Amino acid sequence: MLQQQQQLQHFLDSALQSPGIKSSEPAGPPNSGPICSSPLDRAIDRHPLTVAPETPIAEVLALMNPMHVSCQLCSEKQNALKSAAKRSCVLVVEDNRPIGIFTERDIIVKLTTVAACAVGLTIADVMTRELITLKQSESPDIFTALFALRQHQIRHLPVVDEDSRLLGIITREAIHEALQPVNLLTNLRCAADVMTHQVISAPKTASALDLAQLMVKHRVSSVVIVQEQIQHPDGAMAPTQNYEIPIGIVTERDIVKFHALELNLSEISATEAMGAPLFCISPADSLWSVHQSMQRHSVRRLVVVGSQGELLGLVSETSLPQVFNQSEVYGTIELLQQAVDERAAQLQRANELLQQEILERQRAQEALRQAHDDLKKQVEERTAQLLESNELLRRDIIKRQRVEEVLRRKQSCLKNQAQQLEQTVRKLQQTQTQLVQTEKMSSLGQMIAGIAHEINNPVNFIYGNLSHASHYIKELIQLLELYQQHYPEPVSEIQKAAADIEVDFLVEDLSKIVSSMQVGTERIRQIVVSMRNFSRSDQSHIKLVDIHEGLESTLLILQHRLKAYGGHPSIHIIKEYGNLPQIECCAGQINQVFMNIIGNAIDALDEEIHTGKWATKNGKNSPPSNPSSPLTFPTIKIRTEVVGSDFVAIRISDNGRGIPEEIRRQLFDPFFTTKPVGKGTGLGLSISYHLVVEQHGGRLDCISQAGQGTEFAIEIPIVSCH
């Protein structure tokens, strides 16, 4: 649109600068008269086709048929287009006064069957009697006739004198020929602006009778013959597109021609009836080129097609008069001339104001020059003073820069010292915390070792005597059986005593009691061994250690937190131990890491249990029969494996609520904890990270997402690097 406006502006500028338009004279196109003298007389066809009311229809069709009528209907020589327009209607006159009209449209509407032509009808039976005429005295110019054609939606306008006698006929084609296409906008407007989008089309298999019925139904003067073309797109997901490709056009005149030849319209196919060749244009073609194409090919309609050759619309000759209109050109030029005059007046006023402003500026420049001379003297004096002050200021700045440099160096040194001091304090805090924790673990280990030693002595005494007691009881039972065998009928006192003490039950239950005592003492011995293994008070340095033994000892110590009690369900342990070699490490430190991580997992599951996620009746629940099924109960899974050939991995995971990302980034920071005050120090994971990574050269990672549980992955080298 911007490009078209620029073209229009350039075109109008050129028109205004041409010799035919001057600022002191009315605007008007070159080589043309005033607008009031429009050529109405040249638009009137003085020799239209006229017939009497009693003329048979067959004769009228013969007159209108171009194959039977010569183009020399008058003494003047006319071109083929005028001749075609002349044959498009017949005026019915009586006493040289028009009483009706018969057009090509009437032929289509009233005579669409062959049987109608066979009836002996006259033109008075089928003519249109509501005749619209134009008196020549009432039409000052050609635009009155054009307005009447548009207002009444007709294509033929008879012209009469004061006595209603026929003078001639005006058609749209005649007006178009009289005016000539001089519209300034035609080169900037395109066919898409005036084309008819609602085009009636038909396949090439349709008959001429079908086409005539379509013209009657839709009140159109032509039907475009098309064939369907299917385009398959390149992409598999793109839809298939169908196009109607125009191959010909059939007009009212073609139907009239077949009527005149007395042919059966139902037996004539569309391909036989359509005109050839078909003249097509692009929607981007200018209206001037459209007009020239119609003149060159002597046609009244052009088909508008797209880039694929598909049917887009139709441009007829009746669409062009409203564009090729001289009045629009003259009106545009007059408006432009008025705009130029107004602009010239504005420029004249602006020029006068500019002259006054120039005089004022000259006076101001003179005053400014005088002020400049005075200011120059003052500036020279002031400059000398400023140079002296500037030198003093420069010396002061140099001194300050030296002082600032010294201060900057000292500040940098102090900053480095502060950073080193901060790092030292942090290390001291960590070391102090580690020492406190180590001392606690050492004291705990010594206490556990002492308790284990004290318990081990009486347990060993009981465990050692149980075997002898069991042997003695078996011998007494054998002796009792011998007595019962040899003395089946003892005295009444023995029988009464045997019944009171229930000898048979006593013999059976005594064996069970001895077995239970052996199981209990064995259990106590295992607990003592686990306490010794966990404390490792005698193994503070690096030795070959069985990781599975440390895990079992830790679980045994934490067994009381894993059991069910009250409404608290039990926490299930899933062990997936791999075939691990013994590794070189400090067993006490590694056990401490296991204790911290498993204890945190139990705390996380306890929080979920308190929220009611795994609430069960009386705290009882049981693991599913299929270990691979989704865990619907609190569970801790311990999996061990060899990673590569240098590391052993211990993965401890739970099915709790998981750890958000913002908390997971701070897990191993000292004193960071999410537990309430009094329930956590924030040192467990920090010390564990120190023991695994710094003391043993391993790796400790946390893999967790909110709502998907947490896993701690511990990797310890098989061979110690320290």
Any overview of this molecule?
It is a single chain. This protein starts with a helix and ends in a 5-residue tail after the last strand. Helix 15 packs across helix 17 (503-535) and helix 17 packs across helix 18. Strand 10, helix 14 (287-297) and strand 11 form a beta-alpha-beta unit. The longest helix is centred in the middle third of the chain and has 161 residues, at 326-486. Among the domains are: 33-179, CBS-domain, CATH 3.10.580; 191-231 and 240-319, CBS-domain (Roll), CATH 3.10.580; 539-623 and 631-717, Heat Shock Protein 90 (2-Layer Sandwich). Strands 14-16-17-19-18 form a 5-stranded mixed sheet. Strands 1-2-3 form a 3-stranded mixed sheet. It is an alpha/beta fold and 722 residues long.
